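Example record

One chain of 220 residues, shown exactly as stored in the release files.
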Amino acid sequence: MKKKIIIIGGGEHAGVIYDCVKEQKKFDLIGYLDKKKGFLSKKKIKYLGSENTFFKKFKKNKNIFFTIAIGDNYKRKKIYDDIKKFKIQINWGIVIHPSASISPLAKIDEGAQILNGSIISYKTRISKHVCIYTGAIIDHHNHFHSFSSAAPGACTGGNVEVGENSFLGINCSVKHGVKIGKKVVIGGNAFVNKNCSSNSLYFGIPARRVRKWKDEESYL
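Predicted structure tokens for this chain:
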């Protein structure tokens, strides 16, 4: 018997996650939650109402899993924190597109999303609610902390650490051994060859700190 899953979010990124769920064939999709009907309704996915209304009535069910289909790290974590306030046990699904290549010795935590064609190498840790986007290459012994993400085409060398809520932009490259702090945004096509301070925006070749970064700023 397949497990069931509910997608939180109804926008275009949720459409990508819906495609992964469909191709993964591990879950039966029940529907989606959002403040109002969104993109997934065009796919004839059942709208289940807002998160607030749904979780007020929801009771623990070991067969129902959830995934937060929000691309922005800050917004994804905020939704997670809001749901925690209901003090109910939630099962977070791991969504992996079948075209992704993942080492059997990599560790993927609950809520993570590994999208089309991405590569997760030997002894890498993908923590809770991390999103690895299409075609990203994550080499050996990396650690992506919770709520971080790597955009399409991002590439890391070995032993890279990416802090909580940090984002690697499209087609950026990170040299082996580099440590990226918390709440860092790396611009598209950047080459990161040195450690990056928390709460900062970096871009360029080589990447340089441009300014302080605030949680609520949009980067997608």
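Notes: The domain at 95-212 is CATH 2.160.10.10 (UDP N-Acetylglucosamine Acyltransferase; domain 1).
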